[in-house]
Amino acid sequence: MSDGTLTIGTKRYSSWSLRGWLAVKLAGLDVVEVVIPLAGGVTPGLKAISPGGTVPYLEHQGAKLWESLAICEYCAEFAPALWPADRAARAHARAIAGEMHAGFRELRMAMPMSLYRARAAGTCRTERAAADIARIEALWADTRARFGAGGPFLFGAGFTNADAMYAPVVCRLLTYQPPLSAEAQAYCAAVRAHPLMRQWYDEAAREPAGWFLEKYESAPEG
Ligand SMILES: N[C@@H](CCC(=O)N[C@@H](CS)C(=O)NCC(=O)O)C(=O)O
Q: What is the pTM of this model?
């Protein structure tokens, strides 16, 4: 008997689900995973399942959580290493996780997460998305310079909630391949190589074609 349920959206597309799923997996919570095929907007039935009408949605030992960042915080109660041990580093991790949760809308709109989108490389570049990407590159570089010694992730060797929050950005950058610094490319490669990211991509590749959404699968125009 498991301790609850994690409801997520289509793995090919659901960026917020990826964040919650990574935190739950890293914390080792014993939950049943339910995947709801997303409709690319208002998915029928989601409001009946999740109080916020969105995924990820976690029910665990009586707790009910429908915001990815809240799920990350909850998971860190079981696995404190999901935040850095040092207080200043932990504060920084929360600040950049919060910046991700609240922002980078232009990037999210211009380059929707679509893990296997054909002929996407070099497309979907807008000035505003480029500005978001520049801010993210600067934020990653600053974080790694101050706290990242000893490993490939934002806070070194351990994959933290901050990495989980930025993982879907990595997915977007890998799909659309905008110009990136060598350092940012190395970080993206490290995140993509994490065993849980490999699992997510592999499971996404096995999702039924009936779940595909044309608007996220068709070759982008420019
Ligand atoms: N602020 C929420 C955003 C969650 C969200 O927007 N999730 C999308 C899927 S990636 C969703 O459920 N959209 C509703 C729908 O597709 O019907 C969070 O951090 O969890």
A: 0.98
